[in-house]
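Internal tracking record. Fields below are filled automatically when a chain is submitted to the structure queue. Please do not edit lines marked as system-generated. If the sequence contains nonstandard residues, flag them in the REMARKS field before resubmitting.
Queue: standard
Priority: normal
Entity type: single polypeptide chain
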Amino acid sequence: MRLLAYLGLLACLRSRNHKGLNGRQAAWAARKYHGHRVLPESIMEEIDEAQIV
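SYSTEM-GENERATED OUTPUT FOLLOWS
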C-alpha cells in the first residue's frame, strides 16, 4: 500500500473514532471521502440519509 494512502486511512480511522461511527458506517465514509484526511461535521446526517446502520 502506498504510504500516502495508508496515512489517509489512518487519518480517516482517527476521525471515525472521534465521530462515533461503527465499522459499517466508517467503511461507507472511507469510500465516500477517500481523498480527504478528515470527515466533515455533517457526516452523521449523510449516514442517516443513506440509511447506513
